[in-house]
Amino acid sequence: MKKLIMLLLISTVLSGCSFIEETNNTLDYATEATEYLNELSNFTEEVPGLVDQAVSDPAVQEDLKSHFIALEESIADFNAIDVPELAEGLHQNFTEKNQQLLDITSNVIQNGEVAVEKLEESELFQTIETITELQNQIEDLGF
Q1: Which of 15, 113, 118, 128 lies deepest, with the highest CB count within 10 Å?
Q2: Is 40 within 8 Å of 80 (Cβ atoms)?
Q3: Residues 90-115: pLDDT tens digits?
Q4: Beta strands at 113-114 and 109-110: parallel, antiparallel or unpaired
Q5: What per-residue confidence (pLDDT) applies to 39?
Q6: What parts of the chain have a pLDDT lower than 50?
Q7: What's the count of helices (H) and strands (E) in the chain, helices before strands?
């Protein structure tokens, strides 16, 4: 009888640890997703001012290129993070929209240079806006 009680107690403790771990993983995910969205917001604040200047200033062109490289790295890093079960659907939305964003950036960067005219014609900022709208879903995770 003692063994049965001890086994039930151990089973209860282990399942509680799993719940705590899942909660911590969800919190970590929500934090990383929020940081990623902040990076996208910073990109949309900084880049438009550089676009006009990049046409005539090679130094600004390089700065603009650096912003795009950093954006692509952020996308890849975020797509590769560990996703808790609770956020799998949300992360799938992120990765689909991130792929659209990567397609746009690969079209804008040609031969290692930012094609400003392609950037102006692209839906880059609209795509970022649709991604940042996922913030509400992150908040719905309960954190």
Answers
A1: 128
A2: no
A3: 999 999 999 999 999 988 887 778 88
A4: antiparallel
A5: 94
A6: 1, 4, 6-16, 143
A7: 6, 2
Q: What is the pTM of this model?
A: 0.77
- The amino acid that residue 115 corresponds to is A
Rounded to whole angstroms, the Cα distance separating 139 from 132 reads 12
DSSP letters spanning 18-75? HHHHHHHHHHHHHHHHHHHHHHHHHHHHHHHHHHHHHTT-HHHHHHHHHHHHHHHHHH
Spacing of C-alpha 54 from chain mean position: 26
- For residue 127 the two structure tokens come to 């795509």
Rg over alpha carbons for the chain, rounded to the nearest Å, is 21
**What pLDDT score does 3 carry?**
55
Helix, strand, or coil here: 109? strand
Tokens read off for 89? 């659907």
Query: What are 63's two structure tokens?
Result: 């700065």
